[in-house]
Amino acid sequence: MTDLEKLIESNAKAIQALTSDIAEMKRDRDLMYSMMRDLTDKVSTLVSTQTQSYDLMKNLDSRQDQLASQQQQLIEILKKLSG
Asked: How far apart are CA 45 and CA 40, in angstroms?
């Protein structure tokens, strides 16, 4: 095998290895993008759930204020009835 043939074979092997590396990098990149999409979807769901939780807590606070007011009114009525 001549030096030129050895060089050609060596270059062919290098090109084949680079092609394999590029294909592997593409698979890894595709996987990373898929994981990023999944993470974005999960973060979106989390934000939505947090918003719903805050709204629920706000509603609960309002209801507690209403109950406290009604309780106070009942106490006043009981005081009037017993006094």
From this structure: 9
State the Cα–Cα distance between residues 12 and 20, nearest whole angstrom: 12
Say whether 1 sits in a helix, a strand or coil: coil
Segment 15-20 mean pLDDT: 93
Q: Amino acid identity of 40?
A: T
pLDDT at 75 over 90: yes
From 42, 50, 47, 23, select the one nearest 34 (Cα to Cα). 42
The count of residues in the chain is 83
DSSP H helical ranges for 1-83: 3-82
